[in-house]
Amino acid sequence: MIYIQYLFIFNILAQNYARSLTDVETLNIDSLSKELTIAVIFQPDCHACKNQMSELNCLKDKYKIILFGAFATEKKLRQEYRKLRTNLPAFYANNEVLKKIKVTQNLTPQIINLTEQPTIVSLGFESCENLKAQLIKN
Length: 138
Known about the structure:
Blueprint: H1 2-16, E1 17-20, E2 26-28, E3 37-42, H2 47-55, E4 64-69, H3 74-84, E5 90-92, H4 95-100, E6 110-113, E7 119-123, H5 128-137
Parallel strand pairs: 3-4, 4-5
Antiparallel strand pairs: 1-2, 1-5, 3-6, 6-7
């Protein structure tokens, strides 16, 4: 009985937390809606993801930006994160985390506004100016 309760609690936590790709930190997904937060979904071998990183700089003053690696193993995502050459925090997005932040397509980069209700801002590479315009609409 204790084992079943442990699995139940662990499953609930797994749905609400993402593990860091850079250290032992975890991220409570539910806490993100309380501040202006942008999620950027990336995956290995995504040339557009690398280009998107430099375009995110214009949003750093107004938004908290968090990277989520998806659609690969944690090991591959850690390697890809190093290639991105950014100091933005990065977390592993398993299927439960992807559902929680409303990722429905296997396309990257994918930018999602997590403030209040998760809303897709862009699918694929977007310039800084286009991102700002899309965020104003949301």
